[in-house]
Predict the 3D structure of the following.
Amino acid sequence: METSVLPNRLSLRLPLRSSYSKKHNTPRDIVIRFSKKKTRDDILLSNSKTPTFYKGERIAILKELPISILERRRKYLFLTDELKKRNIRFRWDRIDGLMLTWEGLHK
């Protein structure tokens, strides 16, 4: 995708400076809202095939999750903290809940 066409397809660009990035001097996040879903999907697909670099640093491009899903995941935070402490691999289920690997089996 050509970058010269991209500015016409953005509806919102919002740089964020979180308290963590201020304390640890890390790069800030930038939230971008696209006017067309196809543009967003094209960028995510091209980034998964070939990573994007800026000044020698890899740029992490992540898909934003809706607030409703984030609120549903919030009730599992106590469990994810415990799984991380015990080095148990898990991933978030798309709708609601967790999927984890225990002794080589998916539960």
